[in-house]
Specification:
Largest sheet: 7 strands, mixed
Radius of gyration: 34 Å
Bound molecules: guanosine-5'-triphosphate
Strand content: 5-15%
Number of strands: 9
Mean pLDDT: 74
Oligomer: single chain
Shape: elongated
CATH superfamily of the largest domain: P-loop containing nucleotide triphosphate hydrolases
Helix content: 40-55%
CATH topology of the largest domain: Rossmann fold
CATH class of the largest domain: Alpha Beta
Number of domains: 3
Length: 558
């Protein structure tokens, strides 16, 4: 036996190379075809989209599951009822049932709306077998709708220049790192120094919502150091549309104890901002008043050269808007953004980085604003400044002053906490805040006394700031709140400090005012200086601005 093979039989079972290749080719072709078919098959996609559900660690899981379950039950009951009524109507035995069914249809729509918290009627389109997915989808739709609304609002803005400004502001804000120590700080400080040095009139822009918070005594001192040389400092109380007239009056009275102060609306508000209707305080009229004051000053100086005007202030108070408002008064050429091409009237031969725009033969505008960065020494020297408890609160305060660029805000939650703390004593403002997000009245948590987390969870759900598995992303919600605050969609302001009045006026005598609360006066004769300067700027007409008793008008949505 062993080893002998019969002649004529093949030695091995191995096929020919040609056959092997043929089989390989056919197999590859078959696999290719299967892959192609699988791609076309819709099941393939839906398999991948498996909902991961709510993570166990999510603190509101129970609540959410309950809600989903109740939702499902009610929907089932409604469906059952509709079925029965449809059956009755079909048999024609009960006409009433048909009517009822019609009415019920309306109810059902209402019910769906309620359940989806009024987010979107289209939410019904999504897969009903997965309520969690439906909830997330509808919330996302609401977020998209809201973002679109904001977008179209800014597109519809009458003044294109404003939206350009916003972009510019964002760009520039992005360039600035957190105030206090970035490399770009040096460049900004240099511009600030140049503006103060070169300007005859320094316009110090303050935010009307928190004038003392955006006011630096150090800056005022540095400008005043050059006052004997004829430099003037004027306070510009900007964004007056974001505070009620009574609050504005209080601040004008307070600030005019230090420097001549001019109220201003430098720009139109952001879309959906909640503004107040002030008599005679439009963008055009207030910027015209400022322009007139500057022209009066230039005329009173009667110099051979033009008087130069510089603008300084905290980030985001509206410095560029003030420059643009003044530039827009140039005949024909719309100021546009501060980065617009230098108008033809610009003086040649300027060696610094600051451009000068010639407004007329007597007036020149330095068209780069000087940014004032908040400093801790201000808090010490300003008796009216907010005193933060710790580092976190100090940062939150800066965020609420809009002095921190959005990219540099790592944790916006403390800012929302501080905002709620400030608004809490004013029930009307708390109610308006709830209304902004379409929430029920805001209540402090009975256990912690704090409502920040509860509030942010609700905002996240309303605005579709949801993470994986529909978990509310409270960080993103907090950022939304911070942006809404920055753009005036959330109302809030500080009231001016009340001046102490001597207790018992002698009969027949006028009550005498005691010293201002600011014990450290900038110069001894502040009152005299303010009066003298006001004359140079012919502010007498403006002096009574806002003094007349006025009713606080209704809030107006822009
Ligand atoms: N409601 C309201 N918003 C204003 C007013 N003036 C300016 N703004 C808005 O405030 C935001 C900041 O304005 P900017 O002029 O860019 O402020 P800025 O001080 O130059 O800002 P930075 O360049 O970041 O320092 C913009 O969204 C403006 O539209 C105003 O009078 N009322």
């Amino acid at each position: 036996m062993g080893g002998i093979t019969k002649p004529g039989k093949p030695k091995s079972k191995r096929g020919t190379t040609r056959l092997r290749h043929k089989i390989e080719k056919a197999s590859n072709a078959k696999q290719r075809k299967q892959r192609k078919l699988a791609k076309k098959n819709p099941e393939w996609r839906s398999k991948l989209k498996k909902d991961p559900g709510i993570p166990n660690l999510f603190p509101y899981k129970e609540k959410l599951l309950h809600q989903i379950e109740a939702d499902r039950e009610r929907r089932k009951e409604e469906q059952q009822r509709r079925k029965e009524m449809a059956k009755a109507a079909k048999t024609g035995t009960d006409e009433k049932a048909e009517e009822e069914m019609d009415a019920d249809d309306g109810d059902l729509i209402d019910f769906d709306d309620d359940e989806m918290e009024g987010i979107d009627e289209d939410a019904d389109d999504v897969d009903e077998s997965n309520p969690m997915a439906a909830l997330i989808a509808s919330a996302r739709k609401a977020a998209a709708k809201y973002d679109k609304e904001l977008q179209s609002g800014s597109d519809m803005d009458e003044d294109d220049e404003d939206s350009d400004d916003d972009e510019d502001a964002d760009d520039r804000a992005g360039a600035i790192e957190v105030p206090g120590g970035a490399t770009s700080r040096k460049a900004f400080d240099k511009v600030f120094k140049q503006v103060v040095e070169q300007a005859d009139v320094v316009l110090y822009v303050l935010d009307a919502r928190d004038p003392e918070g955006t006011r630096s005594r150090d800056v005022e001192r540095s400008v005043m150091a050059a006052a004997s040389g004829g430099k003037r400092l004027i306070l510009i109380l900007n964004k007056v549309d974001l505070v009620p007239p009574k609050v504005l009056r209080g601040w004008l009275t307070h600030l005019r104890r230090y420097f001549p102060t001019i109220p201003l609306r430098a720009s139109n508000p952001a879309p959906n901002a909640q503004t107040f209707n002030h008599k005679d305080m439009s963008v055009a009229s207030t910027s015209a008043a400022l322009f007139r004051a500057l022209k009066s000053f230039a005329a009173s100086r009667n110099l051979k050269r033009a008087v130069s005007v510089g603008v300084i202030g905290y980030p985001n108070v509206g410095k560029s808007s003030v420059i643009n408002a003044l530039l827009s008064r140039l005949g024909g050429s719309r100021g546009g953004s501060s980065h617009a091409a230098c108008p033809a009237g610009a003086e040649a031969g300027v060696t610094t980085s600051i451009r000068r725009v010639k407004i007329d033969s007597k007036l020149t505008l330095l068209d780069s604003p000087g940014i004032v960065f908040p400093s801790t020494s201000d808090v010490g020297s300003n008796p009216n400044a907010f005193k933060p408890k710790n580092q976190i609160e100090a940062h939150a305060h800066l965020v609420l002053l809009n002095a921190v660029p959005p990219k540099a805000i790592d944790d916006p939650i403390p800012a929302v906490q501080l905002l709620l703390k400030r608004l809490a004593p004013r029930q009307d403002l708390m109610d308006r805040l709830a209304a902004v997000y379409d929430l029920p009245p805001l209540m402090p948590n009975p256990n912690t006394g704090d409502q920040t987390t509860d509030f942010l969870v609700q905002v996240a759900r309303k605005r579709g700031r949801l993470g994986r598995g529909g978990v509310p992303n409270i960080n993103a919600a907090a950022m939304t709140v911070v942006t809404d605050w920055r753009d005036g969609r959330i109302q809030g302001w500080n009231e001016a400090p009340v001046l102490a009045v001597a207790p018992a006026p002698v009969a027949g005598e006028k009550p005498t005012e005691s010293k201002t609360q600011d014990s450290e006066a900038i110069v001894p004769d502040q009152k005299e200086i303010v009066t003298e300067w006001a004359k140079e700027f012919k502010l007498d007409g403006l002096w009574g601005f806002g003094d007349a008793e006025e009713e606080v008008p209704e809030v107006e949505m822009s």
